[in-house]
Amino acid sequence: VLKGIDLTINQGEVVVIIGPSGSGKSTLLRTMNLLEVPTKGHISFEGVDITDRANDIFKMREKMGMVFQQFNLFPNMTVLENITLSPIKTKGMLKADAEQKAYQLLERVGLLDKAAVYPASLSGGQQQRIAIARGLAMDPDVLLFDEPTSALDPEMVGEVLAVMQDLAKSGMTMVIVTHEMGFA
User: Fold this and answer.
1) I need a labelling partner for 149 at 20 to 30 A (CA). Which of 57, 156, 162, 167 fits?
2) Which residues contact 153 (CB under 8 A, 6 or more apart)?
3) What is the DSSP string of 41-87?
4) Domains identified in the chain and CATH numbers
């Protein structure tokens, strides 16, 4: 699907990948963190060839947060548990420290009052902001967004965009895939 791609993204940049459905945008994004493994070529991240099997893929993925189109929150876990799971399990963070960070992130995305609720009780826009907080919980160097607004009702798009704009202003490196020109 992907051929002849040469892409350089600098720290602090916000890159939007635009194209019609089926053009390989999401595949490109998923290839960046090796959710899709390329059959040819190389991907360099922070000077390391992450396609070289000698390198630890999981260590590299810790530096890349991913926000999915359908949120991909665990329905059987509270918002707080969704955000703290990876820092506790993969980084070995103490539960109390992970929760403190999660509360800070929830405040940042405007959902501090939702820590104890389950995803099913949230709107799509709220779920996507929780997914962004979850992506930030690992302190990534880059945040990858796969169609972050396409599953939302039009009135919910603004609240997600506001969070993303705040992240951009703070210097977060972001790669955003979309087919919506107005969003870009």
Assistant:
1) 57
2) 123, 124, 125
3) S--EETTEETTSTTS-HHHHHTTEEEE-TT----TTS-HHHHHHHHH
4) 14-178 (3.40.50.300)
Q: Between the CA of residue 22 and those of 1, 5, 28, 71, 148, what are the distances in Å? A: 10, 16, 11, 20, 16
Rounded to whole angstroms, the Cα distance separating 63 from 35 reads: 14
Q: Are 43 and 50 in contact (CB under 8 A)?
A: yes
Low-confidence ranges of the chain (pLDDT < 50): none
Using CA atoms, how far apart are residues 169 and 160, in angstroms rounded to an integer? 14
Angstrom CA distances, 21 to 5, 10, 51, 113, 149, stand at 18, 26, 26, 36, 14
How far apart are alpha carbons 94 and 79 in whole angstroms? Answer: 18
Question: Token pair for residue 39?
Answer: 């059959």
- What are the angstrom distances between the C-alpha of 98 and each of 82, 125, 138, 141, 154? 11, 23, 10, 18, 33
Q: What pLDDT shows up at residue 58?
A: 84
DSSP codes of every residue in 109-176: TT-GGGTTS-GGGS-HHHHHHHHHHHHHTT--SEEEEESTTTTS-HHHHHHHHHHHHHHHHTT-EEEE
Q: By C-alpha distance, which of 152, 184, 139, 162 is closest to 69?
A: 152
Question: Nearest-CA neighbor of 65 among 183, 174, 178, 181?
Answer: 174
